Amino acid sequence: MMTPPKPLELFLILVGMAAVTYLPRLIPALFFSSRRLPVALERFLSYVPTAVLAALLAPSILVADGRVQFDISENIFLWASIPAFIVAWRFKSFFGAVVVGMATVAVARLFMG
What we know:
The protein is mainly alpha-helical and 113 residues long. It has helices spanning 7-32, 39-45, 48-62, 76-91, 94-112, and strands at 63-64, 67-68.
């Protein structure tokens, strides 16, 4: 059975967790705040958020019932991603895309069972 940490131990744990969370973000920000990156690198890095979001979303959209499903009649998430993508692209609204995607899934579940 584990004994609960003492107040000083708990404080040091919290400070350590804060340091390992904050320092990897702070150090590059401080280092690059006074420097200019090459234009090619800036252009390359501008695609990172989109690539990360796509990598996070692709499994949720393409995998249903434990297997990859491209059949739009069986995969409601793939179906819902189409209008959500159109809203995101046309209106540049993340919130709008989420609402449209959730509404499409809700309607699809209502009618598809």
